[in-house]
Amino acid sequence: QVQLVESGGGLVQAGGSLRLSCAASGVPFSSYVMGWFRQAPGKEREVVAKINSSGDSTYYVDSVKGRFTISRENAKNTVFLQMNSLKPEDTAIYYCAVARTFFRLERTDYWGQGTQVTVSS
Fold first, then answer.
1. Distance of alpha carbon 93 from alpha carbon 90, whole angstroms
2. Complete edge-to-edge strand list for the sheet that includes strand 78-83
3. Which pLDDT tens digit goes with each residue over 92-107?
4. How far is CA 91 from the centre of its chain?
Protein backbone atom coordinates (compact mmCIF):
# COMPACT_ATOMS: atom_id res chain seq x y z
CA GLN A 1 0.00 0.00 0.00
CA VAL A 2 1.42 3.34 -1.09
CA GLN A 3 1.54 5.99 1.59
CA LEU A 4 2.77 9.57 1.31
CA VAL A 5 2.95 11.75 4.40
CA GLU A 6 3.70 15.47 4.09
CA SER A 7 4.91 17.72 6.86
CA GLY A 8 6.44 21.14 7.34
CA GLY A 9 3.61 23.46 6.39
CA GLY A 10 2.57 26.42 8.48
CA LEU A 11 2.06 30.15 8.69
CA VAL A 12 4.89 32.43 7.62
CA GLN A 13 5.28 36.08 6.74
CA ALA A 14 6.01 37.17 3.20
CA GLY A 15 9.71 36.82 2.47
CA GLY A 16 10.05 33.92 4.88
CA SER A 17 10.95 30.28 4.27
CA LEU A 18 9.49 26.85 4.87
CA ARG A 19 10.76 23.36 4.14
CA LEU A 20 8.22 20.70 3.25
CA SER A 21 8.96 16.99 3.58
CA CYS A 22 7.17 13.99 2.13
CA ALA A 23 7.94 10.52 3.41
CA ALA A 24 6.98 7.67 1.09
CA SER A 25 6.36 4.00 1.76
CA GLY A 26 4.99 1.11 -0.25
CA VAL A 27 6.86 2.02 -3.46
CA PRO A 28 10.38 1.38 -4.76
CA PHE A 29 11.17 5.00 -3.98
CA SER A 30 14.53 5.24 -5.72
CA SER A 31 12.94 4.12 -9.00
CA TYR A 32 10.05 6.59 -9.02
CA VAL A 33 9.72 10.28 -9.83
CA MET A 34 8.29 12.61 -7.23
CA GLY A 35 6.45 15.88 -7.43
CA TRP A 36 4.97 18.68 -5.39
CA PHE A 37 1.62 20.18 -6.34
CA ARG A 38 -0.50 22.87 -4.75
CA GLN A 39 -4.12 23.94 -4.73
CA ALA A 40 -5.26 27.37 -3.63
CA PRO A 41 -8.88 28.11 -2.71
CA GLY A 42 -11.02 28.38 -5.82
CA LYS A 43 -8.20 27.32 -8.11
CA GLU A 44 -7.22 24.12 -9.84
CA ARG A 45 -4.36 22.02 -8.58
CA GLU A 46 -1.07 22.93 -10.27
CA VAL A 47 2.32 21.33 -10.42
CA VAL A 48 5.00 23.18 -8.48
CA ALA A 49 8.10 21.02 -8.95
CA LYS A 50 9.15 17.57 -10.08
CA ILE A 51 12.30 15.51 -9.58
CA ASN A 52 13.44 12.35 -11.33
CA SER A 53 14.38 9.14 -9.56
CA SER A 54 18.08 9.92 -9.21
CA GLY A 55 17.56 13.56 -8.32
CA ASP A 56 19.61 15.02 -11.16
CA SER A 57 16.71 16.33 -13.23
CA THR A 58 14.13 18.79 -11.97
CA TYR A 59 11.27 20.90 -13.25
CA TYR A 60 9.74 24.05 -11.75
CA VAL A 61 6.70 26.05 -12.64
CA ASP A 62 7.76 29.56 -13.70
CA SER A 63 6.20 31.24 -10.68
CA VAL A 64 8.56 29.49 -8.23
CA LYS A 65 11.80 29.35 -10.22
CA GLY A 66 14.68 30.78 -8.25
CA ARG A 67 12.72 30.59 -4.98
CA PHE A 68 11.86 26.90 -4.50
CA THR A 69 14.16 23.88 -4.60
CA ILE A 70 13.04 20.27 -4.82
CA SER A 71 15.40 17.53 -3.62
CA ARG A 72 15.23 13.95 -2.49
CA GLU A 73 17.05 11.59 -0.17
CA ASN A 74 16.50 8.09 -1.52
CA ALA A 75 18.09 6.43 1.51
CA LYS A 76 15.28 7.91 3.61
CA ASN A 77 12.47 7.62 1.03
CA THR A 78 11.87 11.34 1.40
CA VAL A 79 11.41 14.27 -0.96
CA PHE A 80 11.76 17.89 0.12
CA LEU A 81 10.59 21.28 -1.08
CA GLN A 82 12.62 24.20 0.19
CA MET A 83 10.57 27.36 -0.24
CA ASN A 84 12.30 30.72 0.12
CA SER A 85 11.13 34.30 -0.48
CA LEU A 86 7.56 33.19 0.03
CA LYS A 87 4.76 35.35 -1.32
CA PRO A 88 1.08 35.56 -0.33
CA GLU A 89 0.21 33.97 -3.68
CA ASP A 90 2.08 30.83 -2.58
CA THR A 91 -0.68 30.20 -0.04
CA ALA A 92 -2.20 26.80 -0.79
CA ILE A 93 -2.44 23.21 0.30
CA TYR A 94 0.71 21.46 -0.90
CA TYR A 95 0.59 17.80 -1.91
CA CYS A 96 3.30 15.36 -2.87
CA ALA A 97 2.78 12.68 -5.47
CA VAL A 98 4.67 9.68 -6.84
CA ALA A 99 4.69 7.95 -10.21
CA ARG A 100 6.92 5.90 -12.47
CA THR A 101 7.48 8.73 -14.97
CA PHE A 102 7.08 12.50 -15.23
CA PHE A 103 4.30 11.92 -17.79
CA ARG A 104 2.30 9.85 -15.36
CA LEU A 105 2.89 12.09 -12.36
CA GLU A 106 -0.08 14.41 -12.89
CA ARG A 107 -2.34 11.40 -13.52
CA THR A 108 -1.15 9.37 -10.57
CA ASP A 109 -3.46 7.80 -8.02
CA TYR A 110 -0.87 8.26 -5.28
CA TRP A 111 -1.14 11.49 -3.34
CA GLY A 112 -0.39 12.62 0.17
CA GLN A 113 -2.99 14.17 2.43
CA GLY A 114 -1.61 17.66 1.93
CA THR A 115 -0.06 20.28 4.18
CA GLN A 116 -1.29 23.85 4.47
CA VAL A 117 1.06 26.72 3.66
CA THR A 118 -0.17 30.20 4.50
CA VAL A 119 1.87 33.29 3.68
CA SER A 120 0.77 36.54 5.28
CA SER A 121 1.48 39.92 3.74
1. 9
2. 3-7, 18-25, 78-83, 68-73
3. 999 999 999 999 998 9
4. 13
